[in-house]
Write a structure and sequence with these properties.
single chain, 423 residues, alpha/beta, Rossmann fold, 4 domains, three-stranded antiparallel β-sheet, 12 strands, binds glutamic acid
């Protein structure tokens, strides 16, 4: 039975890189009918914070990375003390001041990494290892080994930044006569230029991506491609199909370049395929947070969502683009205004406003018919009027179809903006 774990320290938010580690462990468990264990490594009582723990749990749930067992190292100090005592009594560790330290024997350690192959380390490079600190708390490696062994982990999958810890931890397994699990160190995530991931390049908290309007399916899809590929250059990959072919042995050892653009593209694809009612549901809390007075329950809201669905890269785009609907002041883009509302279109606007005012059943179709008859009557090209009208109604030179926009704004506001926007 496969047993794998994700072991975050609640000393910071769930970072996009750690989320990839969690995901790969979760996928191994789910692909092989094994167990995925979440273990909180909160032995550092000063740096561990409840707010970080809550954010980590919330983000894991949001991503759909459900766990089968849950442990917290702060509940297990007695166990670590007991094993430190055992090593002391067997003479494998010694007391230094108040700390307990492991004697490191001279030997060479052979580690077989499922991704990187064989790694040999001479212990000459390893100092005696502190297991328990003088304040009575275990070190990361000691608690990690005791738990990985007692929790019967079959494979330790973690970031490459931990590779130097592995030989040290293997010495602890040996001293405790524990069976050594398999190891797999995931390649680092690099920025698009091949450098270390920075905040600017996208190395930020999962919750931050959530706030920016990314969908969990898109993030999960994106993260699974950081170091792994289902073959045939496929980029949009469903979890069900990924689980059929995913294997940790097929993960690349070269660093994986993070591309915010690709993540955005994937997100736009997931948004497009979402059912409009569900998308509206996902958008409601965001819109309500910015515009508490807005009525988001009616059919109008879903119509707006439908209008922008094919254009959004993130849910936040919807918020940025629909301000003209939810506020009464048209947020004019100065460039759009300068380019399209300069010439004197007062007369055309008046005629259009007047004709639209006479429409009984105001919708995209009747608005279009009215508009076409107005331009025909005035003897001008439709294009001459489309851009100025769009700017007057929305403040922008680009947007969804003009007549759909009118329908969403409604008759009264459309007419008011035609009268006010220009004069
Ligand atoms: N708590 C460690 C970390 O967050 C876990 C490392 C491991 O997976 O062993 O980096």
């Amino acid at each position: 039975m496969v047993r794998v774990r994700f072991a975050p320290s609640p000393t910071g938010f769930l970072h996009i890189g750690s989320a990839r580690t969690a995901l790969f462990n979760w996928m191994v468990a789910r692909a092989q009918g094994g167990k995925f264990i979440l273990r909180i490594e909160d032995t550092d009582q000063v740096r561990s914070k409840t707010e970080f723990l809550e954010e980590i749990l919330e983000s894991m749930k949001w991503l759909g990375l459900t766990w089968d067992e849950y442990y917290k190292q702060s509940d297990r100090f007695d166990i670590y003390r007991q094993y430190a005592g055992k090593l002391l009594s067997e003479g494998k560790a010694y007391q230094d001041g108040a700390a307990v330290v492991l004697k490191v024997p001279q030997k060479s350690i052979k580690l077989y990494d499922l991704i990187r192959g064989e790694i040999v380390v001479d212990t000459k490079e390893i100092k005696d290892q502190v297991l328990m600190k003088s304040d009575g708390s275990p070190t990361y490696s000691f608690a990690c080994v005791v738990d990985d062994a007692l929790m019967e982990m079959t494979c330790i999958i973690r970031g490459e930044d931990h590779i130097s810890n592995t030989p040290k931890q293997m010495l602890i397994y040996e001293a405790l006569d524990f069976k050594i699990p398999k190891f797999a160190h995931l390649p680092l995530i690099l920025d698009p230029e091949g450098g270390r991931m920075s905040k600017r390049a996208g190395a930020t908290a999962v919750s931050e991506y959530r706030t920016q309007g990314f969908l969990p399916q898109a993030i999960v899809n994106y993260l699974m491609l950081l170091g792994w590929s289902p073959g045939n250059n496929q980029e949009k990959v469903s979890m069900a199909s990924a689980l059929k072919t995913f294997s940790i042995k097929k993960v690349n050892k070269a660093g994986a370049a993070f591309s915010f653009e690709k993540l955005q593209w994937l997100n736009s694809q997931y948004i497009r395929e979402m059912d409009t009612a569900r998308l509206a549901e996902a958008l409601r809390p965001l819109v309500a947070a910015r515009y508490p007075q807005a009525d988001l329950q009616g059919a109008d809201f879903e119509r707006m969502v439908q209008l922008y669905k094919g254009r959004m890269n993130t849910l936040a785009d919807f918020l940025d683009w629909t301000d003209y609907i939810f506020t009464d002041l048209v947020p004019f883009d100065p460039e759009a205004k300068a380019a399209h509302l300069t010439r004197d279109m007062g007369k055309e606007f008046d005629v259009l406003a007047q004709q639209l005012g006479a429409v009984d059943d105001f919708n995209a179709k009747t608005a279009e018919e009215t508009f076409r008859s107005v331009v025909a009557g005035l003897g001008i090209e439709a294009g001459t009027l489309v851009h100025p009208v769009r700017v007057a109604l929305t403040g922008r030179a680009v947007g969804p179809g003009l007549f759909d926009t009118m329908a969403v704004l409604g008759k009264e506001r459309t007419i008011r903006r035609l009268k006010e926007g220009f004069h």
